[in-house]
Design goal:
53% of the residues lie in helices and 13% in strands. It has helices at 2-9, 13-21, 25-32, 38-50, 67-87, 109-126, 141-152, 169-178, 201-217, 229-241, 259-267, 283-292, 294-307; strands spanning 54-59, 93-97, 131-133, 159-163, 182-186, 221-225, 250-254, 272-278. Strands 1-2-3-4-5-6-7-8 form an eight-stranded parallel β-barrel, surrounded by seven helices. Strand 6, helix 10 (229-241) and strand 7 (250-254) form a beta-alpha-beta unit. Helix 8 (169-178) runs parallel beside helix 9, helix 9 (201-217) packs parallel to helix 10 and helix 12 packs across helix 13.
């Protein structure tokens, strides 16, 4: 399986240099990450919201090594929120943040990440939107969930992400559904050991459905993060069975993948949110997109050959 190999490469400095220098890289990166600056991304935000879509914005970059870099990540989100305020699009554009960007892996990282993310959550709330805490590898999750719980005391709309491939996730989903959380369910895109995660695609898909059923039957707000047509159909059926209205859950998909499906779901009256990343430190995010779907890797390799 190529997925684990690509995920291992996402942590390799040598592979980072090699892939960054490859002739076809920029063409493929632009497919998933449509800009490097806030100025680049504003036309994308205006275009997608004008088409009836909602967005969740991710400033890419995870390899934070100093408190100063963590503070710069915080400030990048605050700049983005200011621009969204100027566009008067707050209710349609939320933020997705990785706590690793806010210093979670540094000394006293839990406290530092909470200190840095709180102003972002406050600023988002002030323009009528919210923040979702992205899930990263399994070693970071207890800290992420604790920060999520702390933020919800003042900002109960703060969301979080859970990953179907982890054994712990069904229990996490039951707890989050019971306390009314906004929860994005994804399959998972990190290299995890067999001791903590399902590695077989069929087992991951079954776990996804089990966890989604828990969320749909609970008191929270489920966000279905998947491009899989079968899981999308199952999600619609689970929502109907649970008696949920169209505004009581949503679909989320990545920018650049199945864009026609984004518009189809929105046209049917579903809330459809596009996960849109931007920034210069794109490597880790880009490699996970390649690992998730073989077609993305084939597209990248063809581009390298054609540009070589």
């Amino acid at each position: 399986m190529l997925g684990p190999v690509i995920l291992a490469a996402s942590r390799s400095d040598r592979m980072r240099r090699l892939i960054s220098a490859a002739p076809g890289t920029k063409q493929v990166v632009d497919r998933f990450i449509p800009g490097e600056t806030v100025g680049d991304i504003v036309p994308i935000i205006e275009d997608l919201t004008g088409r009836g879509l909602e967005l969740t914005m991710d400033v890419v970059g995870e390899d934070i090594t100093t408190p100063e870099q963590a503070a710069a990540a915080r400030d990048a989100y605050l700049e983005l929120i200011d621009r969204i305020k100027d566009l008067e699009l707050g209710p349609k554009v939320e933020m997705s943040v990785k706590l690793s960007m806010f210093g979670q892996a540094l000394e006293h990282g839990h406290e530092l990440a909470l200190k840095n993310v709180r102003p972002v959550v406050e600023a988002a709330a002030a323009i009528g939107t919210t923040v979702t805490l992205d899930a990263e590898d399994h070693t970071t999750l207890d800290s992420m969930f604790a920060i999520h719980e702390e933020l919800r005391k003042d900002f109960p709309q703060t969301g979080c992400v859970i990953q179907a491939y982890l054994f712990r996730t069904e229990a996490d989903a039951r707890r989050l559904a019971a306390n009314g959380s906004r929860v994005r369910l994804v399959k998972g895109a990190y290299k995890e050991p067999a001791e903590v995660a399902y590695l077989n695609k069929h087992e991951i898909d079954k776990a996804y459905v089990r966890v989604l059923r828990v969320l749909m039957q609970g008191d929270g707000y489920p966000m279905i993060g998947s491009h899989d047509p079968r899981l999308i159909s199952i999600g619609q059926e689970l929502a109907r069975t649970a008696g949920r209205k169209l505004d009581e859950y949503e679909f989320q998909m990545l920018y650049g993948i199945r864009s026609d499906e984004h518009l189809r779901l929105a046209a049917e009256g579903h809330r459809m949110r596009v996960y849109t990343a931007f920034g210069t430190d794109w490597y880790g995010y880009f490699m996970r997109r390649l690992a998730e779907k073989p077609a993305n890797l084939r597209f990248f390799l063809r581009s390298m050959v054609s540009k070589g």
